[in-house]
Amino acid sequence: MMGAMPESEYDVIIVGSGAGGGMAAHVLTHAGARCLMLEAGDWYDTARESKWLEWGYDAPHRGTTDDEHAYGGFEAVVGGYHVDGEPYTCAAGTHWKWFRSRMLGGRTNAWGRISLRNGPADFKPHSRDGKGFDWPISYEDLAPYYDKTEELIGVFGSAEGLENLPDGKFLPPPAPRCYELLIQKACRELQIPCIPSRLAILTRPMGDRPACHYVSQCYRGCRMGSNFSSPVVLLYPAQQTGNLEIRCGAMVREVMTGPDGRAAGVSYIDKEMGQEVQVTGKVIVLAASTCETVRLLLNSRSSRFPNGLANSSGLVGRYLMDTVMSDVTGWVPSLMNLPPHNEDGVGGMHLFVPWWNYERQRLGQLPFSRGYHIELSGGRSGMPAPGLLTGSESLLGGGYGKALKQRSRSLYGSLVSFHGRGEMIPNEDSYCELDKSTVDRWGIPVLRFHFRWSDQEIQMARHMQETFQQIVQTMGGKVIESYGADQRWGISEGGEGIHEVGGTRMGSDPATSVLNPHCQAWDCKNLFVTDGAPFVSLSDKNPTLTIMALAWRTSEYIASQMRTHAV
Predict the structure, then answer these.
(1) Phi/psi at 49 (nearest 5 deg)?
(2) Phi, psi (rounded to 5 degrees) for 135
């Protein structure tokens, strides 16, 4: 328990400490609200606990990544797809991977920090192509909060004036790496835009946060606070107001309601003591992450809310979405035998490819309706694996000893990878519900997932594969590996993008949405959601920046409503 307050009713109880919960705490505490934050994971002090200077070969299994070790043996720091004692189930035929990060700050300690604004078309996708749903708010409604969020967290980038990719309040971008320049040259030949990335990493000092000095291990947490994480930028300053108490190891079971239907407080399990604790608050903010927020609502049943809290529409858990992913790795001979040079940079790409085919879609020249962007990696960030093939031959060749070492040195830095990140259109077959026959270690019913990609997403993944191969060939290289759980099309599994959103979508009609345009529950006016669950659609842009901007807007609304005693 950090920054403990006297036991009494809190103004606001916030469940979850990641991007949405952290922003809610930051805005509400600075507005004078007494807040209690409940986090299921442990306390995390980035300055003391970051693993940013440890070598991969010092990690378990020498830093090997697989399903159980998505972050090279540093899962104890950043979480993973499997959490002990917290199972979930999948319906027959469903493949879903649910990433949980049980620690203060959640996934903001490990995310790629890609910070892209949704554009005007992303808020009105149904009006554009007749598929999915429109948001009840517009880009203009959220633009001021994008501005404030970028200025608070620090985002580098460049003004490009591109369609549906709004420019922001940017710090200067870092210079491209060698392999990125070659990719940019090939893209230019193919008339594909390749521009500076937009990442929440400082390239100039901001306050007491220094500029990044290129350790390149952002996903392990930045000891200096040069990249954005919820604890460093949002929670520690919120604590300094004297208005925030944080309780870690608090596994929330349900939102309690009173006879009037209002949220009265929260019941949670103290994981260390194994005891149930109840706390009361005037306003409840759920930011536990998309699916965990859905689980809390569905488990918050009463005679007044027999199907779960805020679920009179029956839409809690419905229209679950994740990012469409497909990858290709290529070998580029012109990058072989280069003199040693420093390519560390920030922990992520310095250039990326935004979606560029809007006109072709308007003309009906593509077999899918939404877009994707391309993330880049490669260069001198790792050695080629012995199993990588060019045709039927191993890239490293046979042999051992001196010849193998020479071949490895020659190949070092000659691989490039392309990672497509595309928009999924919401469908009725993708949702989560309670599996009442399975409970976690605390006796709380778990989620069962249903999920499918439509032909729209499959066609998009095929286009990604074709585009990546074209870029590799234009660079004079060869494709040596393609990736996707469904190898027929090279598309990822559901949940693997770790961008799941939806499940409590916002709208203008309580019959067709869970939340109003301020992310306030229609059925329970002192209940709000500030994570990814209110999303109506999932554009190709990574959702975290929009989660924070939307949480800021919602929190300002909460503060204004509390001042007039409207909630």
Answers:
(1) -110, -5
(2) -75, 155
Contact 75, 69 (CB under 8 A): yes
Selection from 263, 338, 311, 284 nearest residue 11 by Cα: 284
Nearest-angstrom CA–CA distance, 172 and 141: 26
The 431-439 sheet, strands edge to edge: 89-90, 445-450, 431-439
Q: How far apart are CA 544 and CA 528, in angstroms?
A: 18
**Dihedral sign (CA 390, 393, 394, 396):** negative
Q: How far is CA 3 from the centre of its chain?
A: 28
2 pairs with which residues across the strands?
246
Question: What burial class does residue 274 get, using C-beta atoms within 10 Å of its C-beta: 0-12 exposed, 13-18 middle, 19+ buried?
Answer: exposed
Check if the beta carbon of residue 149 is closer than 8 Å to that of residue 133: no
Q: How far apart are CA 169 and CA 282, in angstroms?
A: 35
Q: Give bridge partners of residue 196 from the DSSP assignment.
A: 351
b/e 163-193 (16+ beta carbons within 10 angstroms → b): ebbbebebbebbebbebbebbbebbeeeebb
CA atoms within 13 Å, Cβ hemisphere of 282: 17
Q: Evaluate whether 154 touches 224 at the Cβ level (below 8 Å).
A: no
**Spatial contact of 286 and 316, defined as CB atoms under 8 Å apart:** no
- How far lies 402's CA from each of 168, 399, 405, 409, in Å? 51, 9, 5, 11
| pLDDT tens by residue, 76-108 | 555 678 788 999 999 999 999 999 999 999 999
Total-model pTM: 0.95
Give the model confidence (pLDDT) of 336-378 as tens digits: 988 888 888 998 999 999 999 999 999 999 999 999 999 999 9
Alpha carbon distances (Å) from 324 to 17, 357, 359, 374? 26, 17, 21, 11
C-beta separation of 542 from 327 below 8 A:
no
Which two three-digit tokens encode residue 488?
Answer: 């027929």
